[in-house]
Design brief:
Blueprint (H helix, E strand, L loop, with lengths): L2 H4 L10 H10 L5 H14 L2 H9 L2 H9 L8 H18 L8 H20 L9 H17 L4 H11 L3 H12 L13 H4 L3 H4 L7 H23 L3 H12 L6 H8 L3 H27 L1
């Protein structure tokens, strides 16, 4: 290995993001041969120094990729940090015998970590949860920079390109256009602005009298159905359910098995059959009362 590849600092500067980025671009880059040697040392011998040099030599690429996401309004140092986590994951999984350079392999991992960070922190409420929504979020935001507000034709075109329904594109566009709003007015808000915060117009209906009465009636009705259904079970099944689920001190399968002189698996089977019958009885009795 060349002397250049060995001249890596033990720590990067932490005083400011500018000094950190400057140091990252001053770190020596590895030749293909040096990279392969270090990757083999890490893969075969778990040489932490080799892994460290692989990570440090590629930090400049993390910075370049992270800069492409500055428009999301999130701290650049956090984007770089998440990208570095992705780089370390790539180094851990990199196979030097595949015939590709580490940077080509690591791009996916770096972007994946940055994407996950953006989706977690871009809004208080997560804007994308499924794989299709994640893909749509980043592609749609890029398209909106070029096109502004979408026409129906553009919405259908984006939907066709990304393999989603037009309604999904419209929903995501609305999410991208919305902003987080404090539920309660901030102290600095003027009285006029306070009237537009959600606490001013969203009612808390949990303690509304008619809803409380309805909930109490529903709870009482379900309790009566349960008592009637339990009375129709045989004594053993009713006792097992009572002791397993209804008593304040719930007993285990093994404790019941010891009392009845059978295996815990047999108690579990009885319990399962009793629960199935109980649900059926409660459903039938509920239908009769409703009629």
């Amino acid at each position: 290995m060349t002397q250049q590849a060995m001249n890596f600092p033990s720590l990067l500067p932490t005083g400011s993001m500018e000094s950190y980025i400057s140091a990252a671009f001053q770190l020596p880059m590895l030749s293909a041969e040096e990279e392969h040697e270090l990757a083999v040392r890490w893969r075969d011998h778990k040489d932490l120094e080799a892994a460290r040099q692989l990570v440090l030599s590629h930090l400049r690429f993390v910075v370049r990729i992270a800069r492409g996401y500055n428009g999301y309004g999130l701290p650049q140092n956090d984007l770089i940090q998440e990208g570095t986590v992705g780089l370390m994951k790539a180094v851990r999984r990199f196979n030097p015998d595949m015939g590709v350079r580490l940077v080509s392999f690591a791009v996916h991992w770096i972007k994946a970590e940055i994407h996950e960070y953006i989706l977690r922190n871009w809004r208080i409420v997560k804007v994308a949860t499924t794989k299709a929504q994640r893909k749509l979020f980043f592609n749609l935001r890029s398209a909106k920079k070029r096109l502004g507000w979408f026409s129906q034709e553009e919405i259908e075109g984006v939907a066709e390109d990304l393999g989603v329904k037009p309604e999904t594109v419209i929903e995501m566009e609305a999410r991208l256009s919305s902003h987080d709003v404090a539920f309660d007015p901030l102290e600095a808000d003027e009285d006029d602005n306070a009237a537009f915060t959600p606490s001013a117009y969203l009612a808390d209906l949990r303690e509304e009298p008619s809803r409380r009465l309805e909930a109490e009636d529903s709870e009482q009705h379900e309790h009566e159905l349960l008592i009637q259904a339990l009375e129709q079970l045989d004594d053993r099944s009713r006792d097992i359910l009572q002791r397993r689920w209804l008593n304040e001190k719930k007993e285990t399968l093994h404790e019941l098995a010891a009392d009845y002189g059978v295996s815990a698996e047999r108690i579990r089977q009885i319990e399962k059959a009793a629960m199935k019958k109980l649900r059926k009885l409660m459903g039938e009795e509920g239908e009769l009362l409703a009629a």
